[in-house]
Amino acid sequence: QNPKTSAIVKQLVAEGNVGELQKYFGSRMEFGTAGLRAAMGPGISHMNDLTIIQTTQGFCRYLEKNFSDLKKRGVVIGFDARAHLSSGGSSKRFARLAANTFISQGVPVYLFSDITPTPFVPYTVTHLKLCAGIMVTASHNPKQDNGYKVYWENGAQIISPHDKGISQAIEENQEPWPQAWDDKLIDSSILLHDPYATINKEYFKDIQKQCFHRNINKETNLKFVHTSVHGVGHKFVQLAFKAFDLRPPFAVPEQKDPDPEFPTVKYPNPEEGKGVLTLSFALAEKDGAKIILANDPDADRLAVAEKQESGEWKVFSGNELGALLGWWIFTCWKNQNRDACAIKDVYMLSSTVSSKILRAIALKEGFHFEETLTGFKWMGNRAKQLMDQGKAVLFAFEEAIGYMCCPAVLDKDGVSAAVITAEMASFLATRNLSLSQQLKAVYDEYGFHITKASYFICHDPKVIQQLFDNLRNYDGENTYPKSCGRFKVSGIRDLTTGYDSSQPDQKAILPTSKSSQMITFTFANGGVATMRTSGTEPKIKYYSELCAPPGNSDTEQLKKELDELVNALEKHFFQPEKNNLQRKTE
């Protein structure tokens, strides 16, 4: 019943444009563990009023089946600032339609009255003991996209088999229920609650448990620049600084207010490097700020840059910031906990494609480190399991600039990560140390971990399948490569098929998934490289790392060795020319 999407379809039918209609109606968006992510527009392959209604009807039925007290506890729904004029879709409208679906079935809904960061939704699920949470956001995707992200009652993103159960329930509930389109009904319902004021108060109270140097924060002369890249983060990072008694960061004026057009950046993704930070660098130079904090549009990720002695800006990789935050959070914990026995219950997590620096710190300091599959859904769920066993999960991170620094949120959170990074930098400044110098100190103590990651774009699923099939049948059927250029392969783990050459029974310990491609190669020189497909973008990604034991400080040689390994990986395993792959461009 949306007049805009309806008009687009009628126009295409009138023109007999079968190609475009096929694009919109050829196949339904797949509901996976990341929920939905697609462009806004008409048809069952896009995000629009109808597909949101259908998805929520399925999700509602699935929750009714799983929770006998759903009508007592309810769900939370949050949204970002995305909007798409030509199809009339927006995150706020989708959130209201989803709320209407639940309320029509007698389910209480805690619908945020205004935009919020993504981490506020899992926080609310836990804090109010709700059955589930929905966040309408496409994070840092291009402006035409939107998404529907789902959290379970434990406050973590859903994992299998919930995705399949929800997907099936969506298939079974496609016809909109009687009042599905009339979202005005919710405004007068006693089942509608607005958690905005409460959660804003409670969240900032909870993250203060991670504030350990209030006096230093009050006195520091360090200046920070913050950008929310036209997303939701501005107000919340300002409040986080206030909660930590830090002077507010300078906000990049052109980017501080939400704007669904993202007019000043090509991609609203701080992971893409310096291009997104151009305006931040200019403001920092003008105001004499040394450190830049950049959130992605839904404020669950954080990028950090620091001005070096040379006047150049260094943008930290996700792995480098993971090393710094891991060191910092453990150091703060150690200062608070003098009991030598307490360390046996301390855990840190990172995903299998992230740097192994936390493992090196854990080995030397005596706490536990665990590796999970890629994605915070795995780290969040594992952290909850450990916390339920009475363990302390201090920190989890992923190289894609995602950090979980505070146990109150079982997902990546760019707001708490920003303010904790600011406190760490303020503390280091009292010791006359920069973040870069401290990073070097971490590597000196625990061993250098040098990483390099990138991706190729490929829009043809057949080519991707062929590329990975070729690696599994490299020297004849069912044989993996024994070398990559001059680099000897010493181990292979394939989490698509479940093969792991390092295990006695050759079976992988981590869960496997046939629906996504992921192979990790270990090399005789201490290098590790993982190739995998992305769940939300048409990319084949790779992640590589060289880990040196403490004492090996010839970083230039290590970097050179890693560059050569990556070049060999691209040439022999990706074969970009043969497979017509498009390189990442800055």
TrEMBL record:
Subcellular location, record wording: Cytoplasm
Gene3D superfamilies tied to this protein: Alpha-D-Glucose-1,6-Bisphosphate, subunit A, domain 3
Principal location listed in the UniProt entry: cytoplasm
One GO CC term, this protein: nucleus
Keyword Transcription: no
PROSITE patterns xrefs: PGM_PMM (PS00710)
Any GO molecular function: magnesium ion binding
One BP annotation, GO: glucose metabolic process
Domain of life: Eukaryota
Alpha-D-phosphohexomutase alpha/beta/alpha domain ranges (all copies): 29-175, 201-307, 339-446
Cross-referenced Pfam families: PGM_PMM_I, PGM_PMM_II, PGM_PMM_III
Assigned keywords, A-Z: Carbohydrate metabolism, Cytoplasm, Glucose metabolism, Isomerase, Magnesium, Metal-binding, Phosphoprotein
Cofactor: Mg(2+)
Family per record: Belongs to the phosphohexose mutase family.
Protein name: PGM2 protein
Organism: Anseranas semipalmata (Magpie goose)
